[in-house]
Request: fold
Amino acid sequence: MTPRMRWLARSVVRVVGLGALLLGGPGLLVATIHRVGLNLLYDFKGGLYNAGVAILHGHSPYQPGFLAHQAAVMRAGHVALGETSLHSFSVPVYPALANVLVVPFSAVPFWIAGLAYTLLSAAAMVGGIWLLGVRDRRCLALTLVSWPFMFGALLGAIGPFLVLGAGVAWRWRDRIWPPALALATIIAVKIFPWTLAVWLFITRRYKALAICVAAGIVLTFGAWAVIGFDGLRQYPQMLSDMSFVQEDRAVSVVGVLVIAGVSSALATAIAMAAGAGILLLAWRLAHGPDGDRRVFGLAILAALAATPIVWEHYMVLLFVPIALVSPRYSKAWLIPVCVPLIEAASFVIPPGRADAPFSPDILRSALPWLVLELMTGIVLCTTSEQRRAAWARLRPVRPRLPPEPAASSLEAA
Reply:
């Protein structure tokens, strides 16, 4: 093949590959809407907007009895509403601070609240990545066409606001109050990013850590005081019931282990051990090159590994460590974008029986995310030179053919 033909072939592969990556997220979104129907802002309405409406009318935003009933149905061997994607439910389970913050949205009609929330989500996503030091428009565009963001925007998830909080904490990390208050807020709103507080401890930001803990306590109990402490006593059991109902569908370490036949308690312990192992690795890397960036990114991965419930839209958080290690466009930015291609490739797994202990259908859903988390961790823990050297060792070495003798040499012979 001539050099021109090789160049043309490489150009075609790059254009087709980039097109598949850019259109994969929208394509998967269309396929999801076609399969389960257009249920726009489903999570926002059921989990947040309705909670705000209940608070405005003086009622408790929580439904512990409903969740307890669903868990009891599953324990009796029946199918609960949250056990299948076609019969799911969305009820308020966010901590009180999230419900209080959404009250202004609940004071207006749902379509206005939904539109404003969606626009704010997009702005929060872009703003969070920008605060992490990214100025390349290609990177900002990739975040908005990625499947995690688009799926979260369809449901009305709060992931982009967690990215914004992480961006604020990183941008003003050399101060005390901004990172402390930012992390206290996102932890009080969603709980599972608590590992970012460990970042403060590992990097010896003890004053910020103390303020973060104090502010988190004030925000949590202050918000619950606003709603009269409704649901505070039942809240731990509510989370337990929700996890029991939905953990075998989550794209998490716990979800995969439960489907594989591991007990819920043991699966949770293994996931927590995995998160602790990631934090231990972060501690080991803290004093090395770019230690602060690596610890912050690994704290994000530890949060995703340790929590029992991880949905696909949570993976917008993967853009945080990628932005830290690659502020400009690189192949690392394609990691969260290539989900549709990995998910399509996972369908080579043959379908299994309905009574099989390990469901290939669940594996197809979880496999892409576990692969992406692993890839992000590799990017965090290695340098570009180390990755290139490892790739060079893995590539097969082609034997070099001896050069053909020149025509003049043949004539001379």
